[in-house]
Amino acid sequence: MIVNLAKSAGFCSGVKRAIDIALKTADSGEKVYMLGDIVHNEDVVRDIQQAGIKKINRLGNGKGKSLLIRAHGSSLRNLLKAIKAGYKIFDATCPMVKEIHRIAKEMESAGFRIIIIGDKDHDEVRGIAGQLKQKAIVIDNIKNVPQESLKKIKKACVVVQSTQNIDKALQILGRIKPFVKDLRFFNTICRPTRLKQNEIKALPVKNNVVIVIGSRNSANTKRLYEISKSLNKNTYRVNSKEEIRREWFRGAKKVGITAGASTPDQTTQEIIKYIKQLGSKR
Q: Does 199 participate in catalysis according to the annotation?
């Protein structure tokens, strides 16, 4: 049984950068706190906590403390609140997400209503919306395009959550266009996501079985799984080797593997080793 690993599998540059900043901050002896998880992966979160960074649910007195801004970014309100509370800020926001913040704020200042194509409850989307003075319109599905609200808007700017499926984003954009006369679109899906999605369109066709490795709450892993599943029904999403089932590989000669942007290489290699062992026992 041949195992084919996608070239783009694993950490993206934004995740690597965030983890590096987190670990360096922890090594400096600072008392470091974080609102939520640095990225959507349980193994990475555990390693960060073991390094001494504490997860908190709300901001308290920040005197003598540091706050690490996660890779997904933060709302402007939370950032200003943290500074006012006395926290020293270490910003690990992905530069590509920061670029979406910049575009959204500049276009709003120019008089455009901001529309975000993305998951309404995702941390990144909340962070983008949280940069704005006026409430953003967030659209997560082509079925949820608010036609009546759009008809009242003269000009709008559309940005996209960095890990969205480009095909679905363009479908939603097509549904928005008839209702807004002056519409500006910025394809803010990041380059690593585009590479992963392009590769996942080939992997299911060239392999009998596809394994997508990543956390259940990882948006980019979910997208990879959905694309692969639509092309090959023998696609499975796992977060560890313990979730793998031997029966998935019956009769399979080639297995394609990819991993989400928050998945550590160690996890991927453990799963590859385990699958190869299963193949050798057949």
A: no
DSSP string for 46-57? HHHHHTTPEEES
Percent of the chain residues topping a pLDDT of 90: 90
Q: Is the pLDDT of residue 29 over 70?
A: yes
For residue 281, what pLDDT is reported?
66
Evaluate whether 128 touches 75 at the Cβ level (below 8 Å): no
Q: What is the pTM of this model?
A: 0.90
CATH code, domain with 23: 3.40.50.11270
Q: Would you call 73 helix, strand, or coil by DSSP?
A: coil
Per annotation, catalytic residue among 124, 199, 247, 270: 124
**Residue 274 confidence class, pLDDT cut points 50, 70, 90:** very high
Q: What is the pLDDT of residue 37?
A: 86
* C-alpha distances in Å from residue 262, one per residue of 101, 103, 133, 206, 218: 21, 25, 31, 25, 8
CA-CA distances (angstroms) from residue 252 to 6, 189, 231, 279? Answer: 18, 34, 16, 9
* Same-domain status, 257 and 271: yes
The Cα-based distances of 129 to 115, 203, 216, 219 in angstroms read 9, 34, 24, 17
Q: How many CB atoms lie within 10 A of CB 254?
A: 14
What are phi and psi for residue 277, nearest 5 degrees?
Answer: -65, -40
Average pLDDT, the chain: 94
What total number of domains does the chain contain? 3
Residue where one domain finishes, among candidates 92, 121, 141:
92
Q: Do 207 and 150 share a domain, yes or no?
A: no
What would the two tokens of residue 258 be? 């990819």
Best CA proximity match to 74, nearest among 86, 85, 89: 89
CA distance from start to end of the chain:
9
Among 143, 172, 189, identify where a domain stops. 189
3-state secondary structure of 214: coil
Domain range spanning residue 256? 2-10+192-280
